[in-house]
Design brief:
- The chain is of the alpha+beta class.
- It is built from 2 helices and 6 strands.
- β4 and β5 form a beta hairpin.
- It is rod-shaped and about 80 Å long.
- 9% of the residues are buried.
Length: 110
């Protein structure tokens, strides 16, 4: 303490150094926690299914439109038809797997 000028400057140095070191660590921990929470919410939203993205716009006959960049999850595949749930929609959509592969980054599992 004597080398820095007494107890008050020493306390200021310790508090300042602690703030400089601990503040970025605290902010990093918050960002990490937020990213984990976002990932968990996406998995919860789609029931643990993999999230895919549309690469082209698609307008269906029933008025539903899927735009490029929209997220969706394929919930089930049967007889070359896929049941998918768009992130922004409240109803599931049935599409042929071939069409789905053409307009999205989804690839049929072998």
């Amino acid at each position: 303490m004597k080398k820095v000028g007494g107890p008050v400057p020493f306390a200021v140095i310790v508090i300042g150094a602690g703030y400089i070191v601990l503040r970025p660590m605290e902010e990093g921990a918050r960002r990490f926690a937020r990213s984990l929470k976002k990932g968990w919410e996406k998995k919860k939203l789609f029931g643990g299914a993999d999230i895919n993205h549309m690469t082209a716009d698609l307008c269906l006959a029933n008025g539903v439109t899927l735009n490029a960049g929209d997220e969706f999850a394929v919930l089930a595949v049967e007889n070359d038809e896929a049941l998918l749930m768009p992130k922004h929609g409240d109803a599931a959509i049935i599409l042929p797997v071939k069409l789905l592969c053409e307009v999205s980054d989804y690839r049929k599992q072998k």
